[in-house]
Every structure is written in structure tokens, then in C-alpha cells.
């Protein structure tokens, strides 16, 4: 086997190994690659666990989606009825719209702000970088229940600090029941979540920036605002890989957001902050329509999978332009 | 020129000020929680933002002494630890193979993990329960290990896969030339280089296990096997909540995360410097 | 060939992981069971309820009585092993219960809401208790009239009450009313409207309500109003699909009346983002003239409010509607969470379970309930009058002045109706549904449950 590797060594030098980014290149076989059996040996545990906890139950859920089922032994096969009903379910579509809005806000807010902060932290005139990085990561380790409860109190109409602050600065016209106004409830719910996770992406992005040779950035950092623009152009391509991961993690995480919204508004007022995961939960655990909820879960999975892969394709295309 | 300089000075000042403000807002929750936990229930309900005048430490004592709290704490600590170890190992292995080699089904394996990121886990609650029941896997000390591992893996695999791709493949080659086995390559060369990303995974996967809620509720019946996330929620009863007591319990419950964070955030930083040299 | 081996290895690996775990679980479980089985004379009974230690510490009478009933049962029947699983509402009691129901794994004794019982029964998961009650006539006779109202579905009785409640009690501060020039509580719905206006003008929150959980308006505020506009016969007809509907004029009228009140500023502005515990504080601080919650809140008030507030607090329900005086005597009450028995209990389990139900409604528990500030379920209860809090006495007086207890749709009808009503009233409160649209939605949800 060892001999095998040596003979193919030359081939390897021509075609360096690459990950998924190598998509589109002619297929080659990494000569260092251990035989398939061994790869599968290594991968069997993570993949096996995964099949067991996620894939098999998903297949079950897919099965339930063809039944009218309110729990217990009695299931009635109804074919595609659940899916047809879903198409006409206004609340589902409203929740879908809310989810998309929420996700866009999250991606723009969390990754966007984290990225801007990262750029600032490459500049010499920004003080306490190390302190900032550590402190900003902090909220992301706190459970959603706490964050939700705290912001609920911050938003409180009577004694919340937000309205208190507005009153003190003479902005009485801005005072609002933040979580109760259906027009802004979605935004009010989004802000705490954005705030909480900026630090998480900041740490990931700064990790990538740290791998950029210092002199490249120093060239950019001649002066303030212009330098900022320039470093933007220099930095993005260099940290594109990790930025992509951040965008995907953020997208996926926000698409199934549940806890924060549950704690702050429970999806209300009305359905103003109802997102898919919340409505799905409502359907199965409040209304006890398990079959219908399963159909919904399947659709959510298909939609989010498609979107995630779509976004990934899009970003990879963009990466090739650079 | 001077105007430009002043403008730039102002810009720099504003940016620094904004960043400081934001950082300040990030430690606010913990300070608020500490402050709240030191109040009596009445004091808190009257004004949840005021500073406590007579620190009331009894809440912490009550929280820790409440039935089963410490047991749940320990259960979660064990689960969290196991989850961290398994997640780091599995993510490293999966990330390494996916990033390095073009084996058959690689795309499928990768997609599998992506799907895990987007799937609404709550909708799997009932099927997973049924499955665990059928296999007699409910209500054991290790019952929650597999679900937690599965929830932590997707992000971890994404991160390691991406990170390992930045490690030059020449290292592998050199290692193989010297007769390293794949196992040795993984443990002796790749793993140490992944330390910054590992630190992040350690924190995240510990938190996943520590904060996870509906599965621990449904898959565990035995009171002595309950997790901390359930114990915390027990402080809210149907018609009355003692918020300060709840805060005290929450504070005690985030201590381990805090400690792990403090330990590993250094690791992240160290790793970054290594990364810089490497680059 | 190669491909096949690869697939095979994946499958084998997965099966191995699963099998390994299943394997060791099997042995452990077996060991446990055989250990328990050694003492074969013992009957095991499982129960799931919400009486957490923390709730008991907070003085929640419903939790205290469950705890007491369990203790009494255990000491009286030492040969039965009663295994409790206690989960608080916040910790996901309902989620757990419904997951267990989905998996057909309900415990032997189940604490459930009437709306869930209907569905559990349809799925053959809980017993019709009518035969049990018939066989134990003496025990059944100890209950006051209407104590099975929430649990009666057609000819079936699906649960036994723990206590009795009134869903829509208004707690008001007579001092604030006096300050606004009102000597007494409004006598009819028109006066109530005027009172809301006056209170609002004077800077008070008329009726503090915490509707974040969506049930406060739907199952506390609304039933109180609805059943002043409609007779119990109407409601029974709606419930049994006997021609009456939520879209009937008198029903729409009631919903419209609530909408008018909302538009006058009946509730606190942040009604939809606060929970009941948080809004009670508005009342304690003298910012709100009234607050609404179930009768259980009497004990919360006693525990939490200052003496000054307690002295000024009076207890009532929504005033009668002009021209519908015949409905004056109706009060919306019920039993809320009750206990059901799993279908398919073994004979010894069945006997033990019925004994538990009896224990739960024993005279001692009835006394405990009344003295702890909750309505009991028995016809006759012995209690020490001096142990009652003056506020609870006020409540009892008010309660006894009504002669007809009627049901609450949000409690008794299907879960689909409940969800539509919870969300619907919240939507009406923010103006995205008109009363007519809401009535149509409610009826639609109610009908949808019939098809099943």
C-alpha cells in the first residue's frame, strides 16, 4: 500500500487537494486518500448517529404527513390532503413571510455588523480590541430564556429602560409598547437576537482575519474612512470562505429560530411574530394535529434545504469571480 | 486638510465610542441578573431595573438547595462534557475527510450535515421519542448523548471542514512520507492545528447540551436524571413566579458555561496568533 | 460490487451503533424490571401532574392539594407504588403530555385540560368514567352539582376535578373607583363602558390583563362577557352542534362589545406582551383600577399585595347586560385541569387509581382547598371560618350570589377551537380582525373539530 502512495505522489503535486471548492474541476483521486473502507470506518460514527437521530425520525415524520393523526394509535390515511391544506393555510404563509423577514434581518444584522466590527478591529486606531472581542462574545453564551426575559423587561411599557431613556431624552413621541405594536413587533423581536449573536460571528471572522498577513492590511490602513473602504475590498476575498460559513450558519439558525420569540411574544400579537417553527409547534403541541404538523415540517425542511443550497451555490459562484 | 483631519478624528472617536457602548451592553445582562438575584421578590416586581439596596443572598441558597437542583446540575455537567468530547472528535474526523478527499458519497455526507442545520428539531420530538421507546432507550443516563451529539455536529463539521481546508495539504504529504498513519496524522498533526476552531466548538457544544430543552423533557422521566434546563424551568409555577429566585438559579446555572468560556476564550486567542504565523 | 460494499458498510455501521445502544439498554431495563418484579404483590401506578415543590413554596393551593392527596394515598395504600412525575407548566408539561399521547404512552393518572381529554378519548387513550362513578355512587354523590361540567362530553364523563374555579374574576380597587367619582361597581354593561372611559381619563389602567400566553382575553375576559349576552342553553347548543353558532347575533354582539371596550382602552397598552404575574403588579402599585384573572388569584393577592391594596380590593365579575336580566345569575366556572384515567389499566391498577381519585376528593382535601383559598368540589365541606382570609370570604359571598355555573368554551371545546380563539382575540385586540370575522373564525374552528 505504501508503494502505491509513492507512485502516485507525482500526480498529487499536479493536482493539489481541495475541498468542496474544487467543484467543477476534473475529477481526480487524492493519492493520499485511504481506501474507501477506512474512510467509511472513520465516518460511520458521526454519520451513523446522524442517520439515527435526524434522518430516520425525519423519514417517520414524512410518513405521518400522509395521515390525519391527533396522537395515539388511530391514524387515518388521507394521502396528500395535509399538503393541499397547507397550500391554502394563510397562517402558514404569513409565518413563512415572517420567517423570511426575520432571517434577512438576522443575516444582515448579525453577520453584517460583525463584519463591520471586524474591519474596525483591523485598524490601529481602534482601542481595546482584545477586550471588545472577549466581551462581545459574552451574550451568545447566555440562554435564550434569559435574553428574552431581559429584553421583555427592557421593552416594558411602564418601567422598561428603553422608554425610560426616550422619556429622559425628550423623545416622548417615540415611546411605544414595543412588543405590542404589530407593525414593529417583528423588529423589536429581532433586535435582541441580533445583539446577542454579533459576538459569535465576530470571533469567527476575526479568526479568519488573523490569518491575513499584517502588511496587506497595513497598506490599506493609511487613513480613516478611505482606508476602511479599501480594507473592505482587500479583506472580503481573503476571508470569503469563513464569511460564507457565517452566512450559512446564520441563515440556518435564524430559519428555525424559536426560543427567543417564544419567550418574548409567543408569536403574538395575533400572528405578527409567528414564524414557521412556532406555528409548527403550535400545530402539533397546542392543536394536536400531528399529521398536519409533520407535513408542515417536511415542507419547511425542503424549503430551507433548497434555500441553503441555493445560497451556497450562489456564494460559490461569487467566490470564483474573485 | 485640517478639516479632513478633524472629520477623521471625529469618525475615529465615534467608532471607538460606539464599540465601547456595544461592549458595555454585552456585560449588562449579567450585571442585571446579579442585581436582580439579590433582591426580594417584592423589590423586583416594584422596579426590575433599580439597584438593590440590601443584598439578599438567601435566593442563591434557596436556589441551590431546591430539590434536585444540584443533581440536575451534575447530570448536565456530565452530559455536557461527554458531548464536547464526542463532538470535537466526530467533527474533526468528518471535517477532515470531507475537506481532504473526494470519496464517493462525499456530497451526500456533506448535505446530510447541512440538513441537520436547517431542520426544525422540535418537529422530530415525537418521532425520536417513538424510536427511543421502541429501542428501549428512554430514561437512561446516556439517553441524551446521541441527540445532543447530533444537534452539535452540523455546525461543528461546517467549521472544522472549512478550517482544515486552510491547513496546507503538504503537511499531510510530509506526514505520510514519514510513515504516519491516518490516525496519527489526525491526532498528532491536524488536531493540534485546529485549536482555535476547537475552542469555539467546545464552547458551543457544551452550551448546546447545557441549554437544550424539549428533548431532555420528553426523553427523561426519572427525576434523578433530569437536566439543568428542566430544573431551571421548574422555578416558574403556574400562577406565581419568584423572579429573583429564578435569576439566582439562572446565574448558578450559567457558571459552568462562564468558566468554560473564560478558559477557552484564551485558547481562541492563542490559536489566532498561531494562525497568523501560519498564514 | 464495490459500491454495494460501501453502502453495506454504512448501513452496517448505523445498525451497529443503534443495535449496540439498544442492546445495552435492553439488559439494563430488564434488570430494573426484574428488580421491581421481585415484589410482585405491589401495584405500580404512574401519575403526571404540575405540583412542583416551588409552586408549593409559592403557596399555590392546587399544587398543595395534589401533594397532600398523594401523601395521603401513599400512607393509606402502602402496597401501591405511586410513581409521580412532576413537571411545571413552564417546563413544558403540555409538550410532554402531548408527546406521550402521540406515542400512546400516557401515564395511568393524567392531569389534563378538558380540551385535551376530548381528543384523548376519541383516540381511545382515556376512560369514560361514567361506569366508575355509577359503581361508586356514594362517592359520586359527594360532589356538588356541575362539578363534572368541564369533563362531560355527550354521555361521557372523562375526568375528575381537583378543585373548582371561576375563570373571570374581576379584582377592583374601590378607592380608585371612588376617586373617579364612582361609589359602586357598574351595574350594567353600559355603565361599565362609562366606567372604563372615566378611569382611562383619570390616568388609570381600567382592567390590567396579561395576555402574552394568549389565554387571558380568550378564556378569562371573554367568557365572562359572552355568558352575560347568551344563555347556557345557547352554549350547550353550540357545543353539541345543535344549530346554534358563534356567528349568532347575540354572540357577535358580545364580541363587538368587547371590541368597543378595547377601543376605549380597557386594557393596558402592553396587554399582549405581559404575563399575568407581571400585570398583577400594576394593580398592586395602584396603577390599575381592576385586573382580571381566575379565582386562584385570590391567594396570590393575599400573598403578594400590600395591606392597603387588600383593604380596598373588592371582587366581582362582569355586570349583567340591560334587557338580558334573566342571564344575571350565570357565572362562568369550571374545574380546569382535572384527572383522567388511562384506558386499559389492569384490574389492580384500576382499583388503585379509583382509590386515588377518591383520596383526591376526600373531606380532608376539601377543607384544605377552602382554607387555602380555593373553591372545593364537594357539596358539603367542613371548615373553620376563622381560617378564611377576609378577601376569600368576599369571593365566596360573591360566588354564592350566583346560582348557575356555566361552562367556558375555551376550556371545554376542542384544541383547534382553543387555538383559534386564543389567537383570534389577540388579533382583534390589535385590530387585524373585526368582531364578525372573529366570530366566523371561531365557528369554523369549532366545526373543523366536528369532522374529526
UniProtKB/TrEMBL annotation, chain A:
One Pfam family named in its UniProt record: BPD_transp_1
Keywords tagged on the record: Cell membrane, Membrane, Transmembrane, Transmembrane helix, Transport
Family listed: Belongs to the binding-protein-dependent transport system permease family.
GO annotations of cellular component type: plasma membrane
Domain ABC transmembrane type-1: 96-311
GO biological process, one term: transmembrane transport
Annotated localization: Cell membrane
SUPFAM superfamilies, alphabetized: MetI-like
Transmembrane segments: 39-67, 100-123, 135-154, 184-212, 232-255, 290-311
Chief place of localization: membrane
Membrane-topology descriptor: Multi-pass membrane protein
Database matches in CDD domains: TM_PBP2 (cd06261)
Protein name (Swiss-Prot/TrEMBL): Carbohydrate ABC transporter membrane protein 1 (CUT1 family)
TrEMBL record, chain B:
UniProt xrefs under InterPro entries: MetI-like, MetI-like_sf
A single Gene Ontology CC term: plasma membrane
Subcellular location field: Cell membrane
PROSITE patterns recorded: ABC_TM1, PROKAR_LIPOPROTEIN
Topology with respect to the bilayer: Multi-pass membrane protein
Pfam families recorded: BPD_transp_1
Any one of the GO BP annotations: transmembrane transport
Regions that span the bilayer: 12-34, 77-98, 110-130, 142-164, 185-207, 243-264
Top-level division of the source organism's lineage: Bacteria
Keywords (A to Z) from UniProt: Cell membrane, Membrane, Transmembrane, Transmembrane helix, Transport
Record-annotated ABC transmembrane type-1 domain positions: 73-264
PANTHER family: ABC TRANSPORTER PERMEASE PROTEIN MG189-RELATED (PTHR43744:SF12), ABC TRANSPORTER PERMEASE PROTEIN MG189-RELATED-RELATED (PTHR43744)
Assigned protein family: Belongs to the binding-protein-dependent transport system permease family.
Protein name: Carbohydrate ABC transporter membrane protein 2 (CUT1 family)
Annotated organism of origin: Faecalicatena orotica
Automatic annotation (TrEMBL), chain C:
Top-level taxon: Bacteria
One Pfam family, short name: SBP_bac_8
Protein name in the entry: Carbohydrate ABC transporter substrate-binding protein (CUT1 family)
Keywords: Signal
Signal peptide: 1-22
Keyword Disulfide bond: no
InterPro entries named among the record's database cross-references: Bact_solute-bd_prot1, SBP
Lineage: Bacteria, Bacillati, Bacillota, Clostridia, Lachnospirales
Keyword flag Hydrolase: no
Amino acid at each position: 500500500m505504501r508503494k502505491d502512495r509513492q507512485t502516485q505522489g507525482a500526480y498529487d503535486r499536479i493536482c493539489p487537494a481541495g475541498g468542496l471548492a474544487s467543484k467543477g474541476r476534473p475529477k481526480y483521486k487524492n493519492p493520499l486518500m485511504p481506501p474507501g473502507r477506512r474512510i467509511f470506518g472513520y465516518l460511520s460514527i458521526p454519520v451513523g448517529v446522524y442517520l439515527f437521530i435526524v434522518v430516520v425520525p425525519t423519514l417517520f415524520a414524512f410518513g405521518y404527513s400522509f395521515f390525519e393523526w391527533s396522537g395515539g394509535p388511530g391514524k387515518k390515511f388521507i394521502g396528500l390532503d395535509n399538503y393541499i391544506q397547507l397550500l391554502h393555510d394563510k397562517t402558514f404563509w404569513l409565518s413563512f413571510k415572517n420567517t423570511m423577514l426575520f432571517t434577512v434581518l438576522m443575516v444582515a444584522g448579525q453577520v453584517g455588523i460583525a463584519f463591520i466590527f471586524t474591519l474596525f478591529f483591523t485598524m490601529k486606531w481602534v482601542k481595546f480590541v482584545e477586550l471588545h472581542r472577549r466581551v462581545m462574545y459574552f451574550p451568545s453564551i447566555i440562554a435564550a430564556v434569559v435574553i428574552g426575559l431581559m429584553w421583555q423587561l427592557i421593552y416594558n411599557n411602564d418601567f422598561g429602560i428603553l422608554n425610560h431613556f426616550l422619556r429622559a431624552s425628550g423623545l416622548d413621541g417615540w415611546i411605544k409598547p414595543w412588543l405590542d405594536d404589530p407593525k414593529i413587533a417583528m423588529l423589536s423581536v429581532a433586535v435582541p437576537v441580533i445583539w446577542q449573536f454579533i459576538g459569535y460571528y465576530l470571533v469567527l471572522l476575526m479568526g479568519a482575519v488573523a490569518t491575513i498577513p499584517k502588511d496587506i492590511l497595513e497598506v490599506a490602513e493609511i487613513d480613516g474612512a478611505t482606508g476602511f473602504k479599501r480594507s473592505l475590498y482587500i479583506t472580503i476575498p481573503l476571508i470569503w470562505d469563513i464569511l460564507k460559513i457565517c452566512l450559512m450558519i446564520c441563515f440556518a439558525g435564524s430559519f428555525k429560530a424559536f426560543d427567543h420569540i417564544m419567550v418574548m411574544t409567543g408569536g403574538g400579537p395575533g400572528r405578527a411574530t409567528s414564524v414557521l417553527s412556532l406555528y409548527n409547534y403550535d400545530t402539533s403541541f397546542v392543536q394536536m394535529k400531528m399529521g398536519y404538523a409533520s407535513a408542515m415540517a417536511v415542507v419547511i425542511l425542503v424549503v430551507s434545504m433548497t434555500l441553503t443550497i441555493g445560497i451556497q451555490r450562489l456564494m460559490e459562484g461569487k467566490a470564483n469571480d474573485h | 486638510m485640517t478639516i479632513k483631519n478633524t472629520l477623521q478624528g471625529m469618525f475615529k472617536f465615534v467608532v471607538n465610542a460606539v464599540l465601547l457602548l456595544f461592549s458595555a451592553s454585552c456585560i449588562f445582562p449579567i450585571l442585571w441578573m446579579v442585581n436582580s438575584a439579590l433582591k426580594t421578590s417584592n423589590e423586583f416586581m416594584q422596579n426590575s431595573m433599580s439597584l438593590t439596596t440590601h443584598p439578599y443572598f438567601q435566593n442563591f441558597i434557596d436556589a441551590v438547595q431546591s430539590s434536585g437542583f444540584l443533581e440536575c446540575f451534575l447530570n448536565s455537567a456530565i452530559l455536557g462534557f461527554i458531548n464536547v468530547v464526542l463532538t470535537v472528535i466526530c467533527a474533526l474526523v468528518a471535517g477532515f475527510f470531507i475537506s481532504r478527499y473526494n470519496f464517493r458519497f462525499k456530497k451526500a455526507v456533506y448535505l446530510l450535515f447541512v440538513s441537520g442545520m436547517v431542520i426544525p428539531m422540535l418537529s422530530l420530538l415525537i418521532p425520536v421519542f417513538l424510536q427511543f421507546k421502541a429501542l428501549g432507550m428512554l430514561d437512561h443516563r446516556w439517553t441524551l448523548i446521541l441527540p445532543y451529539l447530533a444537534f452539535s455536529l452540523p455546525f461543528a463539521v461546517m467549521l472544522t471542514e472549512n478550517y482544515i481546508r486552510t491547513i496546507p495539504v503538504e503537511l499531510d504529504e510530509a506526514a505520510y512520507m514519514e510513515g504516519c498513519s491516518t490516525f496519527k496524522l489526525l491526532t498528532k498533526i491536524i488536531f493540534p492545528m485546529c485549536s482555535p476552531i476547537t475552542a469555539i466548538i467546545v464552547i458551543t457544544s457544551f452550551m448546546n447540551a447545557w441549554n437544550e430543552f424539549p428533548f431532555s423533557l420528553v426523553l427523561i422521566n426519572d427525576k434523578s436524571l433530569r437536566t439543568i434546563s428542566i430544573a431551571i424551568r421548574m422555578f416558574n409555577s403556574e400562577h406565581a413566579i419568584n423572579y429573583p429566585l429564578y435569576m439566582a438559579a439562572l446565574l448558578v446555572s450559567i457558571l459552568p458555561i462562564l468558566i468554560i468560556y473564560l478558559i477557552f476564550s484564551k485558547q481562541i486567542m492563542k490559536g489566532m496568533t498561531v494562525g497568523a504565523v501560519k498564514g | 460490487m464495490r459500491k454495494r460494499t460501501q453502502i453495506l458498510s454504512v448501513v452496517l455501521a448505523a445498525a451497529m451503533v443503534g443495535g449496540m445502544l439498544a442492546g445495552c439498554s435492553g439488559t439494563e431495563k430488564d434488570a430494573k424490571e426484574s428488580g421491581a418484579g421481585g415484589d410482585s404483590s405491589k401495584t405500580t401506578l404512574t401519575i403526571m401532574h404540575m405540583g412542583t415543590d416551588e409552586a408549593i413554596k409559592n403557596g399555590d393551593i392546587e399544587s398543595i392539594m395534589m401533594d397532600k392527596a398523594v401523601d395521603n394515598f401513599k400512607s393509606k395504600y402502602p402496597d401501591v407504588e405511586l410513581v409521580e412525575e412532576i413537571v411545571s407548566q413552564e417546563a413544558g408539561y403540555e409538550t410532554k403530555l402531548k408527546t406521550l399521547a402521540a406515542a400512546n404512552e400516557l401515564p395511568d393518572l393524567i392531569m389534563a385540560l378538558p380540551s385535551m381529554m376530548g381528543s384523548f378519548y376519541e383516540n381511545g387513550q382515556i376512560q369514560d368514567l361514567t361506569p366508575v362513578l355509577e359503581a361508586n355512587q356514594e362517592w359520586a354523590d359527594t360532589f356538588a352539582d356541575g362539578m363534572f361540567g368541564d369533563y362531560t362530553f355527550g354521555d361521557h364523563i372523562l375526568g375528575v376535578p381537583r378543585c373548582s374555579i371561576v375563570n373571570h374574576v374581576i379584582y377592583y380597587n374601590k378607592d380608585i373607583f371612588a376617586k373617579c367619582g364612582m361609589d359602586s361597581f357598574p351595574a350594567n354593561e353600559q355603565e361599565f363602558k362609562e366606567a372604563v372611559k372615566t378611569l382611562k381619563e383619570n390616568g388609570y389602567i381600567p382592567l390590567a390583563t396579561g395576555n402574552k400566553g394568549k389565554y387571558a382575553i380568550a378564556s378569562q375576559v371573554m367568557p365572562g362577557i359572552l355568558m352575560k349576552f347568551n344563555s347556557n342553553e345557547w352554549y350547550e347548543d353550540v357545543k353539541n352542534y345543535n344549530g346554534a353558532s358563534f356567528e349568532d347575533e347575540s354572540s357577535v354582539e358580545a364580541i363587538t362589545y368587547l371590541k368597543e371596550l378595547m377601543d376605549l382602552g380597557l386594557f393596558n397598552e402592553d396587554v399582549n406582551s405581559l404575563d399575568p404575574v407581571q400585570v398583577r403588579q400594576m394593580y398592586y402599585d395602584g396603577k390599575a383600577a381592576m385586573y382580571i384573572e381566575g379565582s386562584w388569584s385570590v391567594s396570590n393577592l393575599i400573598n403578594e399585595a400590600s395591606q392597603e391594596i387588600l383593604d380596598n380590593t373588592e371582587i366581582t365579575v362582569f355586570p349583567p347586560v340591560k334587557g338580558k336580566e334573566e342571564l344575571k345569575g350565570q357565572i362562568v366556572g369550571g374545574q380546569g385541569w382535572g384527572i383522567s384515567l388511562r384506558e386499559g389499566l389492569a384490574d389492580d391498577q384500576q382499583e388503585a387509581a379509583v382509590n386515588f381519585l377518591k383520596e383526591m376528593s376526600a373531606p380532608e382535601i376539601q377543607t384544605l382547598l377552602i382554607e387555602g383559598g380555593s373553591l372545593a368540589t364537594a357539596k358539603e365541606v367542613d371548615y373553620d371560618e376563622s381560617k378564611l382570609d377576609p378577601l376569600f370570604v368576599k369571593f365566596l359571598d360573591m360566588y354564592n350570589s350566583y346560582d348557575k355555573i356555566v361552562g367556558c368554551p375555551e376550556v371545554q371545546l376542542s384544541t383547534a377551537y382553543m387555538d383559534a380563539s386564543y389567537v383570534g382575540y389577540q388579533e382583534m385586540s390589535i385590530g387585524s380582525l373585526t368582531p364578525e370575522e372573529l366570530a366566523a373564525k371561531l365557528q369554523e374552528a369549532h366545526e373543523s373539530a366536528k369532522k374529526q
